[in-house]
Amino acid sequence: xxxxxxxxxxxxxxxxxxxxxxxxxxxxxxxxxxxxxxxxxxxxxxxxxxxxxxxxxxxxxxxxxxxxxxxxxxxxxxxxxxxxxxxxxxxxxxxxxx
Length: 98
Fold this sequence. Notes:
Layout: E1 2-7, E2 30-34, H1 37-47, H2 55-67, H3 73-96
Antiparallel strand pairs: 1-2
């Protein structure tokens, strides 16, 4: 697979426009991807190996999120604990490598 020709307009106005200034053109991003028949076939096979979406679980969590029921306090506490432990481990590793 080859990816080429990725480009973007370099001009993004940062200052406030006045009535006398010209209207800028919108930024357009573009990507060109070239696939050989073999690599495309491989991608299709690989995509077929992903597990099926369990829509009943997606719907259940969507409902819980919309109702404010998720994330629970236990989930938030567990995440905070995990992140805290990870930061402590990173700090220890950084200080021991000096």
